[in-house]
Amino acid sequence: MKLYIKYMVSARCKMAVKDALKNLGLHYVVVDLGEVDIMEDLSVMQHEQLKINLNDSGLELMEDKRGVLIEKIKICIIKMVQDSDGISKVNLPDFLNEKFGRDYTYMANLFSEVQGITIGQFLISQKIEQIKELIIYSELNLTEIAWKMNYSSVAHLSNQFKKVTGFTPSYYKRLKNFRQELIQ
Predict the structure, then answer these.
(1) Does one domain contain both 33 and 92?
(2) Please, what is the end-to-end C-alpha distance for the chain in angstroms?
């Protein structure tokens, strides 16, 4: 049985889902971002308890088909950004058409209607989150980060970063260094 879970975007979320399933005596085949495949059919009581357990972890069991499609689109984009090689030269509308077998215009309109932002804006926000991670946790310089995240230049990355965060990447890096000095 396949279940879809909202807000499941990290390894920590996967662990929370695995724990929730284990607590209910359910066995999973696959726990991936946004979806879980379990061996058993859920009883009404298990279904309700799973919803409660997931909500306690900040996750949500999804049952609305439109919501499931939106969550699948979000997970697809998150995975694409986290695997930075997946960003390179991908035509997002064509990629999503092929991935979901649906008209991109339909998906884009549905996404905007429900999320309040466009798919493109969501992609940019995810790229900026990944850039923040790279600035903080990697030894890459901004030129290398720009190349890895498929920006045409450091200036393009910097402009988009500042537009989204209000900070330049170099100022953000200085904040990281300042925090490290406070800890020591």
Answers:
(1) no
(2) 49
**The two three-digit tokens of residue 140, written as one number:** 């890459």
Tell me, yes or no, whether 36 and 78 share the same domain: no
Whole-angstrom distance, CA of residue 154 vs CA of residue 83 = 20
pLDDT tens figures, 127-158: 999 999 999 888 889 999 999 898 999 999 99
SS (H, E, C) the chain: CEEEEECCCCHHHHHHHHHHHHHCCCCEEEEECCEEEECCCCCHHHHHHHHHHHHHCCCEEECCHHHHHHHHHHHHHHHHHHCHHHCCCCCHHHHHHHHHCCCHHHHHHHHHHHHCCCHHHHHHHHHHHHHHHHHHHCCCCHHHHHHHCCCCCHHHHHHHHHHHHCCCHHHHHHHHHHHHHHHC
pLDDT in tens, 79-113: 888 886 656 667 889 989 999 999 999 999 999 99
* CA nearest neighbour of 39 among 25, 52, 53, 29: 29
Domain count, the chain: 2
Q: Specify the pTM.
A: 0.75
